Batch of 2 targets.
Target 1
Amino acid sequence: MQAKQSNPNEQRSLVLIKPDAIQRGLAGEIISRLERRGLKIVAMKMLQMDKTLAQRHYAIHKDKAFFNELVNFITSSPIIALVFQGKDAVEIIRQTMGETDPAKALPGTIRGDFGLDIEHNLIHGSDSVENASKEINLFFSAEEIFDYHKDIDRWAG
Ligand code: IDP
Ligand code: MG
């Protein structure tokens, strides 16, 4: 269940800091970039995904050739899961991440600056408001998502 959100453009999106980002010490850098875009962290936890959760999260890719590889990779080390909230959060996060393939991602994006290859691309971000809601429910209970105001939001009116 989503808590009340005052702005109609206010969205929530699921972000995963993937195993390669944790292994390379880039978690803080990635979270910081999203925070500095004005998005608010409303939930965060470290966890090791098991195969069942990975298969559910990536169910849309179950017929792809890379599916098993992807499940093995995402379960290979702990990850950090977050929910970010803000105006147009889904699109803003996708833009800040960059293209799936780091070779095609623009410099200045997370994947364009740090990504190694199409599998080891550091970050997951929901691709639509509808999928965001489903993905958030896979990782977080309603009690784990916080509804609070930042003073800067008041200053911005
Ligand atoms: P996205 O993460 O940019 O939304 P998707 O197409 O949804 O990209 O793919 C999900 C994840 O699957 C990618 O982030 C990447 O880790 C992995 N992936 C996508 N395409 C390939 C591939 O061709 N080989 C290996 N892994 C892939
Ligand atoms: Mg995707």
Note: The chain is about 40% helix and 20% strand.
Target 2
Amino acid sequence: MAALVEGRTGAWEVIIGLEVHAQIVAEAKLFSGAATAFGAAPNTQVSPVDAAFPGMLPVINRHCVEQAVKTGLGLEAEINLVSVFDRKNYFYADLPPGYQISQYSRPIVGKGKVTLDMPDGTTRAIGITRLHLEQDAGKSLHDQHPALTYVDLNRAGVGLMEIVSEPDLRSAEEAGAYLRKLRSILRYLGTCDGNMEEGSLRCDCNVSVRRPDAPLGTRCEIKNVNSIRYVMQAIEYEARRQIEVIEEGGTVEQETRLFDAGKGVTRPMRSKEHAHDYRYFPDPDLLPLKLDRDWVEALRRTLPELPDAKKARFIAFYGLSAEDAGVLVAERASADYFEAVAKGRDAKLAANWVMVELFGALNRLGLGIEQSPVPAAALGELVDLIRDGTLSGRLAKEVFAAMVETGKGAAAIVEERGLKQVTDSGAIESAIDAVLAAQADKVAEYRAGRDKLFGFFVGQVMKATQGKANPALLNELLRRKLAG
Ligand code: ADP
Ligand code: MG
């Protein structure tokens, strides 16, 4: 049952469908050989096709088609063996041909799904309506000159996959979870880098509200939101706004809106009367795209293990909780790192060290796992030292901190700093004797029934051994001494 929003006059259900524009990972553009690298100087990656010189003809980039099909397969979607490129006509300064080549009635990928892992441990399938290929437009630069707008065509013609969801999402949280999952799948597949700051993943949010189980209400579309946090904020705001409009006796007008991140509000951009009429028609320069079934099946066999399958395997094989497995598989690099640490070792201990200590350190340093100062093999070595009793949990944390700082291996640091845990019962016993002799009155109190003092004695002995006493052994010996 979906989360409902309480209005002044009762409960409302929020309905959301997302249109995601995902930039295809490809060296060249969708219909030209120009480069696609991010951050190049303006207008240095533009072919005559992208600039719409007369007489130029588009030629489809086979690799982009492959990427779209792979993505479709990753979304468990139907692959359409025949699809058609259409012209979507509109006039804008950053669109030299006056149209974008897109797919309309016959997209390359049909119905599929993305599975969400809900906080309560259940899963929920969100329908994918379609995925189609299209070109990106150029970029208008408004901040380069006080009175003029410049146009950068580097992005013009770059291949995009537009991934449209069914109106299956029911809250801002679900929309966030959907985008995170979709991004994770795209990254596993290597078909989109999912980098929202660089604009590789942009999202249009369609939002409407209705009384529970009533027919769908009128939607508004919030264009081009470029972070998951903003998507969630925009949906929250927009749902509230629509509820208020209806509760005040008004009706929601279908319109396109923009999200103002600074103010956290959405505002109208164009209404239905001003909606574009794109006059779609098949691009006469391009033949229908026909795929070979065997080629599609061959691609299917190249797909990597995707996050859902990996998560299920981590739960079954390593005995991890669903939550831990979910965290570890979110990024392929984290999952690989974990597996390298866990191989032949206590997997739960390995998972803990990766998620708590390693992720904590990477967060503090602002590094991704690819730049980890501690390689998986080194963390594995540390886990071994914990397992074989050389290091207590506390000492291991100290060693780990030094590994992060110096990049040295675990054993080297233990050796260098003399951090080896004391497991020699004679040494611990003499430390205990010294503490008990110095605290005779506290010993008497303990024996008279103040059990809580046990922790105090543990602390004193730990202090005397510079934290190196094996905690289990210390506890056992101390209990015996105090009883005697
Ligand atoms: P358009 O091309 O005009 O944007 P589509 O039919 O392709 O329209 O739908 C776009 C998106 O709007 C889809 O993600 C769909 O799930 C969503 N959508 C459709 N109807 C509603 C609705 N009533 N409320 C919320 N989202 C909706
Ligand atoms: Mg739309």
Note: The chain has three domains: 4-299, 305-417, 425-483.
